[in-house]
């Protein structure tokens, strides 16, 4: 399926399709026409004696420096070369591809004044599977993600290094030549148009939301498994009780948990007068409230992402009535805030999952299960250290929840005296999501082990999930090398295999 850029704003799913799954990109013909029209406005300013930012002046604190006509093409090349100044570990391929796609989408709005050729070359590079090498550090999130975007522009100019479609690190010029792509020779304003946007942080937001859609549903699943494995009650998840506090995310998570627990003989066996438990611990009873709050936070972040996907971010920008105006739309605060907000929600979701796991391992709280779910407690340690791993990750997630967007370090000789740090917000959220995946996987592994030690049979949904786990990980028994089993559970969680197993029985899970 080809993704057409320029006809309308991209959707989050389309961003993921191109960034993660290499969906081909096409540019709408009307968008190319609009680009050509606004390009004529920029070319009309090229010889103007009146200074125009980014066309006939320097950049940032050098905006008052007049650039002679014969040096204005060099100005654009110099801008890209000097701003391609990142450092540190290589940024993931999907993030770089998302960044390039976001910039292409802005070019296709026709508001940047770049030639159609620029957009066509970006699309060609994406379709060829060529990925510029970008270091982790270099963006302050204002004036956009300058260094990451500059590395992308540098590669399209045929300079710097890239990964080719095979994943090999090669000079950009060689990769372009092999793909039959002519390097761009930038003209007035085009270097600026290629680096001035929130594209990296927005790309990371779209990818994070896609991951969290599945992870929050999987957390609902594992929470329900924990309720079942700890002989909890499903009565507190009743729809009429949830409706007394009408948060939409809470209603969704409670419905998911009811669907997972439906038909559980274990839960049913404790709906008798003989059961003396009045109510369950918060990590069980309040799961819909916490998971639901995460869902509602995601809904707000998704709203911001959709608004940003509909934006044309550049400075200066060509307005709809043909003016070329400076502006501050490149500031990353709207995206930075929700990236940080999601990191807080992720940390709390993982924290609750770890607490449920810990309850399984404590004989004072696990309703008759062996200590640490060990085969022979004392000789065997069971899942004791798996919970340690969870605890270490959760501690890290709490540190990552500290917002990057509250920090600002002035730059460009105080011209850029307040910055968003949104790129940093996105980078730490990606690490947070990886940690959450691992925490949920360990809860699933632990709940499955506990349910294997229970009688009678678990709910049909739970049984399907356990069967999927058991295809990769053996059931209870003497201690084994645990790390590979945890990693297999992580893969099943990350790929959505556990959720797919649940949905095969309960298609209503969302």
Automatic annotation (TrEMBL):
- Report the main location listed first in the record: cytoplasm
Q: Which reaction does it catalyse?
A: L-histidine = trans-urocanate + NH4(+)
Q: Which SUPFAM superfamilies match?
A: L-aspartase-like
Pathway field: Amino-acid degradation; L-histidine degradation into L-glutamate; N-formimidoyl-L-glutamate from L-histidine: step 1/3
Instruction: Name the EC number(s).
Output: 4.3.1.3
Q: Which domain of life is it from?
A: Bacteria
GO CC, sorted alphabetically, is: cytoplasm
A molecular function (GO) held by this record is:
histidine ammonia-lyase activity
Q: Does the keyword Acyltransferase apply?
A: no
**Compartments, as annotated in UniProt:** Cytoplasm
Species of provenance: Microcella putealis
Query: What is the name of this protein?
Result: Histidine ammonia-lyase
What CDD domains does UniProt report for this protein, alphabetically? Answer: PAL-HAL
Which keywords does the record carry?
Histidine metabolism, Lyase
Uppermost EC category: lyase
**Swiss-Prot/TrEMBL GO biological process terms:** L-histidine catabolic process to glutamate and formamide; L-histidine catabolic process to glutamate and formate
**InterPro entries associated with the record:** Aromatic_Lyase, Fumarase/histidase_N, HutH, L-Aspartase-like, Phe/His_NH3-lyase_AS
Q: Name the Pfam families on file.
A: Lyase_aromatic
| Family indicated by similarity | Belongs to the PAL/histidase family.
């Amino acid at each position: 399926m080809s993704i057409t850029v320029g006809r309308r704003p991209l959707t989050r799913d389309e961003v993921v399709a191109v960034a993660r799954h290499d969906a081909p990109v096409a540019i709408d013909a009307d968008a190319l026409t609009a680009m050509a029209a606004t390009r004529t406005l920029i070319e009309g300013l090229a010889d103007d004696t009146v200074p125009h930012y980014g066309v006939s002046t320097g950049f940032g604190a050098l905006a008052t420096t007049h650039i002679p006509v014969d040096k204005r093409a060099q100005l654009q090349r110099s801008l890209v070369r000097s701003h391609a100044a990142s450092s540190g570990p290589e940024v993931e391929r999907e993030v770089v591809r998302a960044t390039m796609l976001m910039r292409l989408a802005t070019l296709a709005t026709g508001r940047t004044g770049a030639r159609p050729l620029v957009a066509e070359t970006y699309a060609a590079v994406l379709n060829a599977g060529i990925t510029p090498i970008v270091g982790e550090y270099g963006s302050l999130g204002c004036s956009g993600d300058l260094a990451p975007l500059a590395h992308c522009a540098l590669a399209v100019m045929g300079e710097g290094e890239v990964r080719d479609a095979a994943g090999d690190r090669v000079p950009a010029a060689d990769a372009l030549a092999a793909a039959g792509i002519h390097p761009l020779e930038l003209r007035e304003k085009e270097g600026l148009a290629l680096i001035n946007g929130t594209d990296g942080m927005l790309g990371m937001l779209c990818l994070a939301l896609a991951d969290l859609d599945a992870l929050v549903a999987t957390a609902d699943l594992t929470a329900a498994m924990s309720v079942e494995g700890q002989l909890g009650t499903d009565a507190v998840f009743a729809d009429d009780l949830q409706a007394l506090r009408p948060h939409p995310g809470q209603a969704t998570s409670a419905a998911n948990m009811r669907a997972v627990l439906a038909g559980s003989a274990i839960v049913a066996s404790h709906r008798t007068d003989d059961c003396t438990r009045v109510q369950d611990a918060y990590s069980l009873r309040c799961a819909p409230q916490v998971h639901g709050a995460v869902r509602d936070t995601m809904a707000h972040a998704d709203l911001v992402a959709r608004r940003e996907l509909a934006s044309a971010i550049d400075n200066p920008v060509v307005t709809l009535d043909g003016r070329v105006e400076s502006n501050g739309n490149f500031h990353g605060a709207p995206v930075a805030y929700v990236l940080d907000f999601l990191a807080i929600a992720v940390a709390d979701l993982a924290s609750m999952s770890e607490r449920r796991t810990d309850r399984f391992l404590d004989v004072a709280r696990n309703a008759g299960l062996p200590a640490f779910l060990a085969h022979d407690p004392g000789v065997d340690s069971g899942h004791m250290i798996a919970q340690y791993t969870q605890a270490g990750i959760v501690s890290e997630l709490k540190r990552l929840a500290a917002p990057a967007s509250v920090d600002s370090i002035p730059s460009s000789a105080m011209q850029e005296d307040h910055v968003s740090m949104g790129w940093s917000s996105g980078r730490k959220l990606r690490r947070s999501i990886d940690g959450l995946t691992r925490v949920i996987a360990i809860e699933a592994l632990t709940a499955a082990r506990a349910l294997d030690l229970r009688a009678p049979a678990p709910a049909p949904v739970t049984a399907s999930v356990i069967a999927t786990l058991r295809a990769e990980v053996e059931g209870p028994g003497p201690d084994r090398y645990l790390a590979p089993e945890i990693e297999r559970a992580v893969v099943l969680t990350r790929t959505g295999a556990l959720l797919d197993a649940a949905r095969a029985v309960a298609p209503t899970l969302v």
